[in-house]
Write the structure tokens for this entry.
Amino acid sequence: MSWKAGLSRNLPILRFFCCNESPSSRGVFTWFNDNYHELKQLNPAMPILLRTGDNCMPAITTELDFSQNDLLTFMIQKQLFRDENGTVSEARMEAAKAYLQTDWHELQRQRWASPGFDPMRPFIDEEEPDWRYTNAERAKDLEAYFVLKDAVDEQIATFSSGPNDEYKKAENALLMCQRVDLWGAGPSEVEAAVKHLSRLGQKFNSLETDFPDFITEYYPGAEEL
């Protein structure tokens, strides 16, 4: 029961898919019916949805907040940076590793090095195409920012330039981690899949706990309310 109470802290939504008449979906349908009311009592603000359709593939899906760092780490671990001849692209691998080591705090600090000017202001390149060169004092203030930002832009251009849409395919592969197919699975396997998604959500999602109005967290030693 304890892990069920923590679902809404890890996942924003759970979607169950199954076919009402197919034996291959019986495990998903049974587990949903047996656990829905308990899950809603423990997670009242969390959407828990069931979608049915003829010959539907039984599955569970959720939403995980993967970042670009997660994607690049995935591509490096799986060695998905490949040249057209099938060999690992060292240039794109190194660009991805360099991007993962970017000092974002320093980049943000240098962004505001020129008082009253934001080099990341929306539409600045359209409104003032030569803004880097029109003010010498401002250019000097932002010198360190230019070095960091140009390095990041070059790294992004390098690791996303692979052939055969490798970067987009890797994005899609990572997003498939949000889904668990459960063809012919029993109730125990469905529960294991929900726990698996919850653990992924605990690692990748940053959700604010939404307590119902009538629930207050109690801390030993706190003054009585």
Notes: Residues 187-204 form the longest helix (18 residues).
